[in-house]
UniProtKB/TrEMBL annotation:
CDD domains linked: PBP2_Bug_TTT
Any Pfam family the entry gives: TctC
Keywords associated with the record: Signal
PANTHER family in alphabetical order: BLR1237 PROTEIN (PTHR42928:SF5), TRICARBOXYLATE-BINDING PROTEIN (PTHR42928)
Position of the signal peptide: 1-25
Sequence similarity: Belongs to the UPF0065 (bug) family.
Protein name: Tripartite tricarboxylate transporter substrate binding protein
PROSITE patterns from the UniProt entry: PROKAR_LIPOPROTEIN
Organism: Paenibacillus piri
Superkingdom per UniProt: Bacteria
Amino acid sequence: MKQGLWKKWVGAAAVISMLALTACGAGGGSKAANGGAPADGKKTEKSAAKPDFPKRAITLLVPYAAGGGTDATARALAKAAEKTIGQSITIVNKTGGGGAVGFVEGANAKPDGYTVTMVTVELATLHHLGLTPITYKEFKPIAQINFDPSAITVKADAKWKTAKEFMDYVKAHPGEVKLGNSGPGSIWHLSGAAIEKATGAKFNHVPFDGAGPAVTALLGGHIDAVPVSPAEVKTHVDSGKLKTLAIVDGKPSDALPGVKTLEEETGIKPTYLGPWRGVVVPKNTPNDIAKVLEDGFMKAAEDPEFKDYMKKSGLGQVVKDHQGFGKLMEESDKSFGELIPALGLAKK
């Protein structure tokens, strides 16, 4: 009897075990909970551990020429990130197409974390202009490093003393005020257009080959105003040759203390468009590797030497994690997707 009962008990236990295993497979309970790890938790512990990354030097692609603002910012950031990431970071400049060549190479790089790309606001404009097929969707955001607002700037002896006087005049004299920009479809052209869209005003947009030549033209009295960044006019404002009437952003700029926002001065609240910079990796880069890079670059952005560089350069330091930066890229793409066609600049 005892032997018979023992056999029946063993058989029942086997059936129960088989049913339990079948239920787990059908419902996905165990697999969903720990990624298919065995119940002893050993695989879970391993997957939770930090990846063995990086083991060698990292490449930071810069889509613009050496010596420019983006290049200088990338080099200062890389220097700080070498300390936080623990490996050397090599800057590689990939120029052409207003940034398009570098964006394409960065998007197509091997998604192993060893190729990081510094992207700029042009990532959200160039594809709407028909200059590249690459969009923010081809990348995984790591961290935002910078944002610079537009600063409406005129000559120091201009007849407008305030931003309200300036905007009232522009609205009363459509197409008369010459507003310099850094080229058709450039960020400063689009920023000026955003002000027009918000106010119904009309500028006479005058394109130049970059913000520098536009500022030079303003100094020479060839145009009436520029909507470029605080960093690009700060030296001349400090010397008394130019004056900034308003900052086109939700808050004043540390680079130009004492200058109020356009909304504070006039009540006008246009879409805040300006150049931003950040670092990304190809979209298929593993999340654990991306997290190592995010931690490293976020800490680097708080490095005292890097912060000092940004302050002395007049650059706005806005630091956001991958979620915040991803949201910015998406919102920028949407804004430019509406504005560029309205200006007749979109690809037909």
